[in-house]
Each structure stands twice: as C-alpha cells, then as structure tokens.
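Example A, followed by Example B.
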Amino acid sequence: MTKRLFFIYFLFLQIIHYQSFADDSLVVRQIKIVGNLRTKKEIILRDMALKVGDTLQKAKLVDVLEADRKKIFNINLFVTVKLASEYVDNQQIDVIVEVKERLYLVLLPVFYLADRNFNEWWYERGHDLKRTIYGIYGRHSNLTGNNDQLKIRAEGGFVPNFEIAYSTPYLDKTLQTTFSVGALYGTNKTMVYRTSQDKFQFFESEKRQRERLNFYAVLARRTGFFQNQYLQIIYNKTQIADTIARLNPNYFLDGRTRQKYFLISYSYVFDRRDNRQYALKGFRLSLDATKYGLSAREDINQFSLSGTVSQYFPLRQNFYGNYSLRAKASFPEKQPFLQTQGLGYRNDLVRGYELYVIDGQSYGLIKTNLKYRMFDKIFDLSNYLKVKQFNALPVAAYINTFFDVGYVKNNFSELNNTKFANKWLVGGGVGLDLVTWYNIVGRLNYSINGVGEKRLFFNLSREF
C-alpha cells in the first residue's frame, strides 16, 4: 500500500512539473522571412539557431532572437535585420525575420592611393596625386541569391591591375562548402625594391620594372555558425627588370629576375564576435599555415605559421575593452625580400609606427583598446533618399584609447639597416572611431611611439 501511494505521489509531481514546463515553453510553428527580394530563404535560415518545431523557454525568447539577428546581420547581405515573434496561442509562436537588402550590383569608378596607407602617402610621399590608382570596379555580391559573388576590377595609374574572380554558391546540401577562383595581372614602373631604416625605397622609371600574374582557387568549409576553414592554392609568376635585381640582389635572392611558384595555405577561423563590422563582445581565433614552393624545381622554398587571438568585452555604462595577440614565425632564416614581411603590412602594426615597415622573419604583437560609445543610432533618410538600400543610415561613434607592444625578429638586419627590428616597440594614444554604411569604419588617432614621435593618423577601411 505504501509503495502504491509513493508511486501515485511521484506521478503527481511529474505531472505538475510537466505542466509547469509546458506553461513556460513555446514551440516555433513557422519562420517567416520578409524583405528578401533576391536572397534565398535558405541562406537566411542557415544562419539561424532557431528551427521550425523547436521548443524554448519564454524567458529566453528575447535573447535567442537577438543572437539570431546578429548572425543574420553578419552575412553582410543586409542593411538592417529585425527579428520579432507573434503568438499563435499560449504555446506556439511565429518568428518574423525582416531584412532590408543591400545594393548588390555595384559598378563604380575606382580611385585610391597606391601607398600602404593614407598616412604614408600624406607624410612620406608629399600627398602626390600621381601616386593614385584609378579605374572601374564591378561587383555583384549576391549574383544568384545564394550569397555568391562576381568581381571584376580594371585599374590604371600608378600600379595597373586587372582582376576577375567568382565565388560559387554553396556546393553541398548543408550549405557549408564554397569554392572561389580568380586571376590577377599587374605591372609596375615605379616600385619598392628594398627597405632602409624601416622605410620603403622606390625606384622610379618610365619603363616596366615588374610584371605579375596570379591564379588562385579557394575551398572554404563552414562548420556550425562560428567555424570556418580555408584551403587556398595559388600559382604566381613575377618578373622584375635587371635594374631591380642589381639594386637589390636579395629581391628574389641571388640576383634572380624571376620567381615562379605554387603556394598552398590553410586557415582556420573561429569567430564568435557580436558584430564583425565593429565588435564589442565576443571572441575570435585564427590560425594560418602557408607553404611557398611545392617542389624542388620552384624558385622559393618557405614556410610560415601565424595565429591571432582577439577578445572583446563590455565593461559598464557604454565602456568596452578588447585585446588582440598575434604572432608569426617563418623559415628558413634567409628569405627573399618580397616574402620577408614583419610589422607594418596591412593591420599588423604597433600604432604610432604607421610610417614604418619593420621587416623580419618572425614577430609578436599585442594590441589593446578601451573605448566609450558616444552614440549609436540609425537615421531615417527616406524623405531625402528613395533608394531603399541607402535610406537607413547607421552611425556609431566611439572615443578610443589604445596601447600596443610589438617585437620583430630579423636575422639579417644589416641588409636594410633597420633601427626597429630586434627591439621592443611600444605605442599608444587616443582616437575617434566612426562606424557607418556598408561596414565602413573611419578612425582618427593621435599616437605617440617608443621614440617619442607624435602624429595624427587617419584610416578609412571596410571591415568584414
């Protein structure tokens, strides 16, 4: 009798627990996509954790919708993304995804600086307008509605280039694998042939000094929402004039005028940032391995490993912090000038040293930021601009303070009379960041470096 009463009591508790859970849970009946005139529904659903038939707790609904909104926004196909829920009854909801698509087809004139950055052109090259590149750029960033891209670039001016590339739609049913192919051809008359005192040295000429042909293919695999892997194969052929080889016999090593090779590289990226345009919260990890030359008959045999760890975190009352750790090692010690890259290339630099390129085989870099959000708004311009892809203007402004530390190891520092390699580099300062349309980020920084140089630096970039 006692056992029977205990069983009935236990069953009664389970019924109460189940009823309580049922009262606090919701079932996703359907997911509606609104505003996707070109983008296929599957591309949006692919980036959502919520699926039809999922059960979730009411208390977590807002957080789950916001997490999926950020994932969809990070596809970089939409100007704005909104997620909402509609109750069908006490136990079922419909999820509404409202997107505003970007302008996918772009045909624009090209005009930009040939130098590494605006600051080098302004301070070191006398802001000479002859050092510019101009032409036509055409891109469709959603050609078939599958987030595939066709790009054509034809440029003249300081460095003539022509490039064509296509990134296919997802190759498999799980929409996780992509394939890209492309070709690039470029020539130089005036060109960098070496560095001295950590500054580029140019040879100016009216004759062609360098010619480069590049074919590439990239296989990308996405696992889940946050992991990406890339396998890239490149064939490169570069020819330089005899004059360049005499001025710098180490350009290709041993006074050679030609460099032909295949390159294979592998990259792994784990990206769980809230916003790839301008992250305020989350984590990113990347690892890269690159092999130049796949056989003994090729003109280079070199291997490099690099990795980056970045962390972004909110503090309090609109304050945010982040740090980034990056390191690179490459082998052998003696490398061609063209492939010996330390700090100063792309965004791998200690801020305050924007005017320097510090060559070396290996380096380490720590970058830190503390920022305050002044405002973050979306302005409605529909009364002034009728093109829907531009009538919503997002603008965010941040006051930014930063401090960086770096070190470059150069085993042959005498070749370029470096003054910063094999020494600790420090730099810091304050600045203003503006984030707006189409992933455009403008930065205005006032920096001081380890040797006491103080300058105002400006940078405009489109981040992904």
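Example B, a separate protein, is given below in the same form.
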Amino acid sequence: ISDFYEGVRQKKWYSDNWENEYYDDMGWHGLAHMRALEATDDERYEESSRNLWNWIVKGWTDYEGGGIQWRKNSDELGDSKGIPANGPAAIIAARRHQKYPNEVVDGHTNLEWAIRIYEWMKYNRTVIATGRVYENFNNTNGDYSYDVGTFMGAAIELYNITKESMYLNDAIKVANYHIASNINTNNRVMTDYGEQAGNGGGHDVNLFKGIFVRYFTELIQHPDLTEGDKTRFVSFLKNNANYLWTFGTEKSPVIKFSYTWWE
C-alpha cells in the first residue's frame, strides 16, 4: 500500500495533496485511501483521503441541474456529467459520514453530500420505472456496468445508514435491469459496450464489469436481501464466472482474461 501511495505521487498528473484534473480518478483514490487507513492506521491516508474529498466536492456545479463534473472545467466545454465521477463520490460521502459524522465540507455534512449526489444520479441518470442506469439517454450502448455498480454501491451505503427501504429497492431494481438487459442473450453473460473493438472502452472494460461485480456481491451478501433475490443473483454471478474461466481465460503461460467473458 505504501509503495503504491508514494509511487503514484511521482506521476506528473498528481500533486502532493492528490489533487488531479479528473474527479473520477480522485474518487477512486479517495475510496482506496480510506481503505488503506482502515488497514494500517497510517495517518498519511487519513490526511490524503480528507484532501481528496475536499477537492472532489469542488467539482459540484449547477450545470445540468447539479452533479460533479468528470474533469475540471468540463462544464465550460459543454461536456455532459456522468456517473463515473458521481457514483464513487456518493460512496465516499456515505462512508465518511459513518467514520466522521460531524464533518462538514463546503457547507454540507457528509450525509447531505451523499444524498445530494445520489439524488442527482437517480433523477438525472436513471429510468426510475425500469432501473436502467445510463450515461446518455438516447444511446443504449452507453449503459456501462461501471455506472450500475457504483450507483448500486451508493444505494447500499445509504440504506445501511438510513434503513430507508427506497435505497435497497433502488439497488435491487438497477441490478435486475442490468442482468436482464446488458447481457449476451445466448449465454446470459454480462456485456459492456466498450469491449467491442473500436468502441472506446479498450482494456478498461474488464474493470467496468469488475466494479459491477464488487457492489453486486455486496448486495448479494446483504442480510436484508430476500432469499429469492439472493438465489437468482448468485446463479447469475456463478454463470458469469463459469463462462469467464472456461471460455474467456487464457491460462498459459500466464492467466489473462478476455474483454468478452465467453470467448
């Protein structure tokens, strides 16, 4: 952890306080540094995670009704806001509320930030009736598993804090839509638009699907999930794992995973 932490700071696009041009990148570091603090009790990570969070909230603007920009000054360029910057930020806010309940950043408590960011995503980047999570409403090819995963993760965090059933129901609804709609219909294995050559995702797409799996697993393990939903979700996850390992994995001379998990 220490080698990673110190090594990344040598990269030219990071400053000593971890400020970065991209709010999604700062979000992933914010989550990682909070976990590093939990694992090590090293005060470096407490300071850096706090600095990152203070930088992240500065990305919130009124453009497009709120939400955090994907990179600095992207509003001026007319770039649309998306869940990649907002999903991790909502999770950070919820986790910081649990660890630092009295912390106030830019005039809002961490819980207020979590709810504020979550509601922006819900009412601007999901179809509430169906559970579809999107980047661009008119482009179904942009329904990334990354977005579903982090929205679901934020919903779970807020449910754990508030015990309001709406949040757990939201997580279940977006999971249901994703595993029914964003799949290869021949084998019910997850797809992601970027996994196809030329579609812009490249090697990131396995990360996208991995992000979904991380938070989907948190939902599966949640004690308040019904046995029926749990059984169905576990079956989907096992099917994906079996296809990936059997058909989508090169096992020699080293293990490599294909973008498409069934070939």
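On Example B: Residues 227-247 form the longest helix (21 residues).
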